[in-house]
Amino acid sequence: MVSVDSQNPLEWPAQLxxxxxxxxxxxxxVQTEAERAQSFLQGTKLIEKxxxxxxxxxxxxxxxxxxxxxxxxxxxxxxxxxxIFSPVLKCVAGTQTCRTYHPICRHPHCPNRRLS
Length: 116
Description:
The chain is mainly alpha-helical. 55% of the residues lie in helices and 5% in strands.
């Protein structure tokens, strides 16, 4: 089992890797059921912390979505997908914020403007 307190990971990549390691160690059949549950819970918390620290990380998003899918929480998977796949772009004119997949800009010189 990974001891988070002794290593104190402050950066999101370390949190992500330690979380994945903890979840993988929860699959070890040599451990007791309580140890396996503790490893899985610890890994889940670390992956959530990593994703919250960097919500644009595809690796953290994939790991978090995998956890949500295992729990059957499909609504949260869709929420994570929206965060990852809806990058915010600035309008060329600087007047509004444009979204790549849901454009809202109406400025005539913005490449992300709504044409309709």
